[in-house]
Every structure is written in C-alpha cells, then in structure tokens.
C-alpha cells in the first residue's frame, strides 16, 4: 500500500509561502506539494488532515514534550525493540521474559493477562494492571525504544507503522485506556514527566500545527 | 457472597470480592493442591486455569473469577491421567514438589495450544514457573513425553 503521507525535507521557514502546486480532489484530499524549504524540521503532511495553523516551530516544540513522555518507562516499556517487554525505571528486560506473541498478548502460559489484572495489584513489585494490557502486535510493533525524536515523529503519523491510524484516530488516541494507564502507575513506579493534561495538549498541538518532525 | 465454579462444582464463597482467588480455593473450598509461593505473580506456584488460561491465583481477585470456569490441579483430569500428569509420574519429575501443581497447569496450557512444542516453545511457556530444586531438565523432558502421550491418545 502506498504511504499516503508526503514528506518534504529541508524546507526553509522564511520562504514558507504557499502550499502550491497540486491539490487533487478525487473523492478525498490526496496530496499537497510544497516548494518551500524548512531548516529546522522535516514536514510530514497528512492528506486527510487540514491544519488549522501550520507552525513548524510550535509543532516541534510541542513534540519535545510528547517525546519526553513516549520515551519514559511508562510508555516505552511496552514498545520495545525486541519481542520481550521492558520493566522498571531502568527499562530492563521483563523478568520471566514473556514473549509478545502474534497478537501482542503473550504466549501459552505466559499471556499478559495471566499476571496483569484489570487494575494495579497492590504492593511493591506486584504487576501493574489494565483490562487491555498488551504489547503492540507482531505485525505492527510500533517500537519506541531507541528511536530519535525525528524517527518517532515520522513513525507516529505513518499509518503503515502506527496501527493504521489517521489524524482523527491519532488525536483520539491521547485518551486511549492504555495511554491513560501510564498516569496510573503501580506502587513504586514513577509517573511520566508531565501530566496527562499537558501531554494531551502537546500531542494535539503537535498534530494540528503540522506534525513536524524534529531535525534529530 | 460469591459463587465460584471450581472443577465443575459450585462453591458459595462468603468473602470479600477483593480476596485473592488462591485464598478462596485453598482456605474456603479446601482445595490445597494449588500452592502459595511469592504472592506477587513472580513464581507460578499458584497457577490455575481460568476459562482455560493459566492465571496466577495469588493476584487474581475473586471478583474476576466469578462466572468463569476455574480448574485446579485436582480437576485437571478425572483420574490424574492428563498426559502431563502421566509424563510427570513416568519421569518422576518433582523433587520437593511444591511448585509442580503450577508447573503442570502451565504445561497443560502449552500442550493444548501447541501439541508439538520445541525446546524453545517449552522455555517460552514455562519461564514464569520457578523450581527451587532445579528440576528444569526433567520438566522439559516430561513435556516432550506428554506431547507424545497426547499424540498417541489422539491417534487411538
């Protein structure tokens, strides 16, 4: 499937003038083309999302906050590079090494919900809980671990890498149950670096101002 | 008051719904084959089947188990002849035996979902069941044997 997002690199801010050339309407908005350059960021344009006020500086600034949350253990621990989740504030490999499985819910006697209850289990080192506890599925791993801000920003708005989410679904995702669970850590675990309210504001600001990816 | 269906039998449990299922199984239903190990889902001694899944009953609340089929080691088979139980006896797997009801319940789920497990599959499935006596080589061997027993019983 062709990636519907168009990526234009090295657009200079000063020269941002007009989204120009082609605007194709074939039942839905299909493509924008820019002949300007941006020095601070890479612009990633969604075909199904019209920004209210495109602003690369505000967008990149908002993504700094988003990135600080997504790379915190409460988010990153379930978005590992490998097929085993991470644990704790130092994001070490999950003890017992439970495997992702095809659907992200574990394998055999080692399924996530066998230990992780619908709610946090009281006590230090007891399993955190959520009714929907799982990793991303094997065919859409949505890895956060090891990603630069630039890489993660691009990945987050690519439907082929983000769970087929369009912009509307991405915005809604800020209130997803598992996202919110990050702010209800089990005993002894830290909260993400900013509140969910601040995160949601930054997330939506990033998307609505153009979903620019930081240069690095 | 909660009603729990354990090994096909209904038990009326007069206890807080937040009570760990393990407590209800052992102290109220009187089925003591399931063991308490760590209490925080780390060791696997307390594994029972909840609608067929190998849950850790020390962290599973009574409220989660209501309306579901609970199977303990006592109910895994009618005559202690589940292929895993047969293999366990054939090879004489346990040393002290404390962890083995949990080991057997986990192995039973593995064999149900994967009738021909490799060593890697066994490691994946059993990594959450700790044996302080170190009977792991015999556990692995017994699971391979149980798979063979299961295959043969399916053929006949």
Automatic annotation (TrEMBL), chain A:
<dbReference type="GO" id="GO:0020037">
    <property type="term" value="F:heme binding"/>
</dbReference>
<dbReference type="InterPro" id="IPR036909">
    <property type="entry name" value="Cyt_c-like_dom_sf"/>
</dbReference>
<dbReference type="GO" id="GO:0009055">
    <property type="term" value="F:electron transfer activity"/>
</dbReference>
<keyword id="KW-0732">Signal</keyword>
<protein>
    <recommendedName>
        <fullName>Cytochrome c domain-containing protein</fullName>
    </recommendedName>
</protein>
<dbReference type="InterPro" id="IPR036280">
    <property type="entry name" value="Multihaem_cyt_sf"/>
</dbReference>
<feature type="signal peptide">
    <location>
        <begin position="1"/>
        <end position="33"/>
    </location>
</feature>
From TrEMBL, chain B:
<dbReference type="InterPro" id="IPR002888">
    <property type="entry name" value="2Fe-2S-bd"/>
</dbReference>
<protein>
    <submittedName>
        <fullName>(2Fe-2S)-binding protein</fullName>
    </submittedName>
</protein>
<dbReference type="InterPro" id="IPR051452">
    <property type="entry name" value="Diverse_Oxidoreductases"/>
</dbReference>
<dbReference type="InterPro" id="IPR036884">
    <property type="entry name" value="2Fe-2S-bd_dom_sf"/>
</dbReference>
<keyword id="KW-0408">Iron</keyword>
<dbReference type="Pfam" id="PF01799">
    <property type="entry name" value="Fer2_2"/>
</dbReference>
<dbReference type="GO" id="GO:0051537">
    <property type="term" value="F:2 iron, 2 sulfur cluster binding"/>
</dbReference>
<keyword id="KW-0560">Oxidoreductase</keyword>
<dbReference type="Pfam" id="PF00111">
    <property type="entry name" value="Fer2"/>
</dbReference>
<keyword id="KW-0411">Iron-sulfur</keyword>
<dbReference type="GO" id="GO:0046872">
    <property type="term" value="F:metal ion binding"/>
</dbReference>
<keyword id="KW-0001">2Fe-2S</keyword>
<dbReference type="InterPro" id="IPR006058">
    <property type="entry name" value="2Fe2S_fd_BS"/>
</dbReference>
<dbReference type="InterPro" id="IPR036010">
    <property type="entry name" value="2Fe-2S_ferredoxin-like_sf"/>
</dbReference>
<dbReference type="InterPro" id="IPR001041">
    <property type="entry name" value="2Fe-2S_ferredoxin-type"/>
</dbReference>
<feature type="domain" description="2Fe-2S ferredoxin-type">
    <location>
        <begin position="1"/>
        <end position="76"/>
    </location>
</feature>
<dbReference type="InterPro" id="IPR012675">
    <property type="entry name" value="Beta-grasp_dom_sf"/>
</dbReference>
<keyword id="KW-0479">Metal-binding</keyword>
<dbReference type="GO" id="GO:0016491">
    <property type="term" value="F:oxidoreductase activity"/>
</dbReference>
């Amino acid at each position: 499937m062709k990636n519907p997002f168009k990526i234009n690199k090295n657009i200079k801010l000063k020269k941002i003038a007009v989204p120009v050339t082609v605007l194709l309407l074939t039942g839905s908005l299909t493509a924008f083309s820019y002949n300007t350059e941006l020095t601070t960021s890479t612009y990633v344009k969604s075909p199904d999302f019209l920004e209210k006020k495109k602003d690369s500086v505000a967008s990149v600034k908002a993504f700094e906050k988003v990135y600080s949350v997504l790379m915190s253990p409460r988010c990153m621990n379930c978005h590992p590079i490998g097929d085993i989740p991470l644990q704790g504030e130092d994001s070490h490999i999950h003890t017992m090494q439970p495997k992702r499985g095809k659907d992200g819910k574990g394998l055999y006697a080692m399924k996530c919900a066998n230990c992780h209850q619908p709610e946090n289990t009281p006590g230090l080192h007891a399993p955190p809980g959520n009714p929907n506890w799982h990793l991303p599925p094997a065919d859409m791993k949505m890895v956060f671990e090891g990603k630069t801000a630039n890489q993660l920003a691009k990945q987050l708005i690519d439907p082929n890498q983000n769970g087929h989410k369009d912009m509307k679904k991405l915005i809604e995702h800020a209130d997803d149950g598992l996202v919110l669970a990050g702010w209800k850590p089990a005993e002894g675990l830290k909260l993400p670096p900013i509140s969910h309210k601040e995160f949601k504001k930054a997330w939506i600001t990033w998307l609505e101002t153009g979903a620019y990816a930081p240069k690095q | 008051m909660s009603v729990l269906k354990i090994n096909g039998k209904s038990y009326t449990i007069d206890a807080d719904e937040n009570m760990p299922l393990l407590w209800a199984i052992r102290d109220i239903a009187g089925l003591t084959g399931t063991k308490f190990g760590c209490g925080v889902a780390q060791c696997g001694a307390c594994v029972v089947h909840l609608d067929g899944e190998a849950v850790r009953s020390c962290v599973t609340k009574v409220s989660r188990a209501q309306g579901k089929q609970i199977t303990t080691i006592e109910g895994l088979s009618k005559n202690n002849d589940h292929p895993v139980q047969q293999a366990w006896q054939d090879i004489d797997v346990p040393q002290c035996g404390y962890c083995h009801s949990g080991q057997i319940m986990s192995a039973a789920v593995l064999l149900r979902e994967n009738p021909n497990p490799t060593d890697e599959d066994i490691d994946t499935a059993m990594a959450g069941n700790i044996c302080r006596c170190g009977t792991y080589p015999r556990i692995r061997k017994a699971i391979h044997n149980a798979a063979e027993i299961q295959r043969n019983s399916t053929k006949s």
